[in-house]
Amino acid sequence: MERPRAWLYGCSVESTARPRVKICCISSVEEARLAFRAGASALGLVSAMPSGPGVIGEEVIAQITDAAPPGVATFLLTCLTDVGAIVAQQRRCRANTLQLVDRVPAGAHRRLREALPGIKVVQVIHIGGDESVAEAVAVAPEVDALLLDSGNPTLSVKELGGTGRVHDWDVSRRIREAVAVPVWLAGGLGPANVREAIGRVGPFGVDLCSGVRTDGRLDAAKLTSFMGGLAAAPRL
């Protein structure tokens, strides 16, 4: 490991605090305000993707990142894999965190750090079986955090998130125990299952999109219900 990265957004891997909440597929400044008023500490902003919900234009992403208050992490979800293209996109969108939803070439994480000092880098691992654990362990030393999701990047039209499916939480737990960086848990989370998910995986944070939406719009009642379930979940 090049250097320990046990801290992300002021919280350690071994924190006893309630898991952080990232609301993804934010579509407007108004949705962003609703999310952080409800207690979200991170916003997911989806740029162009081969499939999945929540895609917005880069100009809207920049408006949201500019409006986000201090202390709220703005995650730019990008499916780009070329370092130069990712750097240019981050500079247009001005997010403080890159969420890489696809695999990138060897050395890309290091080059991103060099080009974008101060910007956090989070790698998505799409959960399958033992191969997902090996992938996570290999990439963890290169990034600030991992995000465990339910996509399938091997399809002809890649699924890189936003599926609304729950994956195997036992695999996610194994990853969380095997790595020394924070782990975010995504994939089919909502008010009905967040307490069980946290108890079984013990993530640093949880990430959700469709679980708090109605007809594609962020639903204040569902968001309140989710936060209530989170409050009842066991502390890490």
Which structural class should the secondary elements be placed in? alpha/beta
Fraction in beta strands: 15-25%
SSE ordering: EEEHEHEHEHEHEHEHEEEH
Q: Helical content, roughly?
A: 25-40%
Key features?
single chain; 236 residues; alpha/beta; TIM Barrel; two-stranded antiparallel sheet; 8 helices; disordered N terminus
Write the layout of secondary structure elements.
Layout: E1 7-8, E2 11-12, E3 20-23, H1 29-38, E4 42-46, H2 58-67, E5 73-78, H3 83-93, E6 97-100, H4 108-115, E7 120-126, H5 130-139, E8 145-149, H6 169-178, E9 183-185, H7 194-201, E10 205-208, E11 213-214, E12 217-218, H8 220-232
Parallel strand pairs: 3-4, 3-10, 4-5, 5-6, 6-7, 7-8, 8-9, 9-10
Antiparallel strand pairs: 1-2, 11-12
Helix pairs in contact: 3-4, 5-6
Molecular structure report:
With 236 residues, this protein is an alpha/beta fold. It has one domain (19-231): TIM Barrel (Alpha-Beta Barrel), CATH 3.20.20.70. It contains eight helices and twelve strands. Strand 4, helix 2 and strand 5 (73-78) form a beta-alpha-beta unit. Helix 3 (83-93) packs parallel to helix 4 (108-115). The longest helix has 13 residues, at 220-232. The protein is globular and about 40 Å long. The protein starts with 6 loop residues before the first strand and ends with a helix.
